[in-house]
Amino acid sequence: MARMRGIADRVEQLLPATVVATTPVAGGDVCTATRVRLSDGGSALVKTRAGAPEGFFEAEARALGWLAEPGAIDVAEVLAVEHDCLVLRWIEPARPSPESAARLGRSLAALHASGADRFGADQDGFIASLPLPNRTAPTWPEFYATRRVLPYLKLAADRGHIDPDDVQAVDALVGRITALAGPEEPPARIHGDLWSGNVVWSAEHGTLIDPAAHGGHRETDLAMLALFGLPHLQRLVDAYREEHPLADGWEERQPLHQLFPLLVHAALFGGHYGARAGQAARRL
To answer: Helices (H) and strands (E) in the chain — how many of each?
Structure first.
């Protein structure tokens, strides 16, 4: 009760409304989520995290704003952000339909096509609870190898969460990454952590949350959706391709783009993710 009262007090300091009710929201390994009902009739989602590192919530708010900037796709709306919390407009969840998946596919294509200045981002961020380096690079293979694959391969290895033979397989792939990356493409504006849990479905469409946004390769978002599954994924991909055709071989390149999330999971959770990263590397 005291924690809920503390959250309500914090929201009332940040928003021009009174909190009339608070409800815990299930899910999420990193942050505590709470729904607050407001006196103006609306609701908000409040994210808090004990001992959050400096800039943690500000980085998420910045990434959401950057994705929303082109007006191409629905993105969680930031109502307030401070060092200790992030307040988002509440999204009433619903079951996804084939039509809403197709709409998301078209919107994702438009988001990617809106582009980015460079591969990377102006500031570093976070992926789950881990720091995320975003320093820019002149090409996508260089960016992906040095800012996404190698840092988390090392972290997983240092923690004993990936076997040496799997480390060797990923290392060998990095040496061939330019040849494996497919045709050169300009930087796309991507979500960067687009698994199914980072899409909130409402009655009409899907809304993006929890980004690791940067200028990257558009196949990364699609590969992430395929890695952990998404309802009506084929409808989404078909609609995407109608709007923004993909280069030949994109499906064969999915294991390359899936290495990053697999290595992050290996670093965080151990288990079978290190072996899956090794398997993905060997498929290429």
So the answer is: 11, 11
